[in-house]
Design a protein that fits this description.
Layout lengths: L8 E7 L3 H14 L4 E8 L3 H11 L5 E7 L25 H4 L3 E5 L3 E3 L16 E5 L1 H8 L6 H14 L8 E9 H5 L2 H7 L2 H5 L4 H10 L3 E3 L6 E2 L3 H10 L14 E3 L17 H19 L7
Parallel strand pairs: 1-2, 1-4, 2-3, 6-8, 9-10
Antiparallel strand pairs: 4-7, 5-10, 6-7
Helix pairs in contact: 1-2, 4-10
Length: 302
């Protein structure tokens, strides 16, 4: 079901180590955004020059109202990244519903926005906590019987326990979420549990596991194009079909947000392998990065 377009609110959360990739993502978002919007940028450990760079990227989009917040003090106490490539700053997104009302689209910094996200704000989530996209890796594991390993089986067992009565195939990737902040605010106990960064840090995959356990059974599954894992939408659909999980999601679209999740990042690669979906996704990022660096040569991702 769709409604009239709501106020477009988009949120990013990062620290200094991931600032430049996040700015590339914001630049790509603004290039495709039609109409007014709010951009909420939260930073951990950023200095004055960093905040200036944030404002510089957004300054070319006068229709976008920038709201900055420093989360260096008081928000992340006891939080830590559960994996080497995941920083504690990612836990900052757990505070979004307590600070912003309405619908908020959270986007990770290791993304490239390739289309206008505004249509997503016509979606009616009802009482669901969020609009999400099923996780590619879990879908792959559930479909790939030949590639089974002890570590993979243990992780799938953990996910099944976490999801309880909800199918493991509905486990979502938390790198892109349309949060229904009012629905969460209507349940203060849930809101408090969501903001428990210590509990989230103790999970194998941090706040992604934490959110899946809290939100299970009360999310709307979006079309895969809203969180396209390294551009592998076709493979993702095939994996879901193989494990008899629905490959159909709300708000059908082509690729709107390409997500380069995991320890490998496209800005650290020079791959030109057009024969693989990951290779093509890397090239897509590098071409966009080249355009970004023409205007902002001092903001190359590390």
């Amino acid at each position: 079901m769709t409604d009239p377009l709501r106020t477009i609110k988009i949120a990013y959360v990062t620290d200094r180590s991931f600032l430049e990739p996040t700015l590339v993502s914001i630049w790509s978002l603004l290039r495709h955004l039609n109409g007014p919007a709010e951009l909420h940028f939260w930073g951990d450990g950023l200095n004055a020059a960093d905040w200036t760079n944030v404002r510089k990227i957004v300054s070319d989009s006068p229709q976008v109202a920038l709201h900055c917040m420093d989360i260096s003090s008081g928000y992340l106490e006891g939080a830590y990244g559960p994996q080497g490539y995941i920083s504690a700053a990612t836990m900052g997104r757990l505070y979004i519903p307590s600070k912003i009302d309405g619908y908020v689209l959270y986007i990770d910094g290791d993304t490239l926005v390739t289309g206008d996200v505004a249509p997503l704000f016509r979606l009616d989530l009802g009482k669901a906590y969020a609009g999400v996209v099923r996780d590619y890796t879990v879908a792959h594991w559930l479909a790939d019987r030949k590639g089974r390993t002890r570590a993979r089986d243990d992780r799938l067992t953990e996910i099944r326990q976490m999801m309880d009565a909800v199918p493991a195939g509905d486990y979502f990737n938390a790198g892109v979420m349309l949060l229904n902040c009012n629905a969460l605010r209507d349940e203060p106990h849930m809101l408090q549990r969501m903001m428990d960064v210590v509990a989230a840090s103790a999970c194998t995959h941090g706040d992604q596991d934490h959110l899946n356990a809290l939100f299970r059974g009360n999310v709307v599954q979006l079309d895969l194009g809203w969180n396209a894992s390294w551009g592998r939408i076709r493979k993702h659909r095939a994996h879901l079909a193989c494990s008899r999980t629905s490959a159909v999601g709300a708000m059908p679209c082509g690729t709107r947000i390409m997500h380069y999740h995991g320890p490998e990042k496209p800005w650290r690669q020079s791959g030109r392998d057009f024969w693989s979906s990951r290779g093509r996704a890397t090239v897509t990022y590098l071409l966009a990065l080249r355009r970004f660096l023409r205007k902002h040569p001092d903001l190359r991702p590390r």
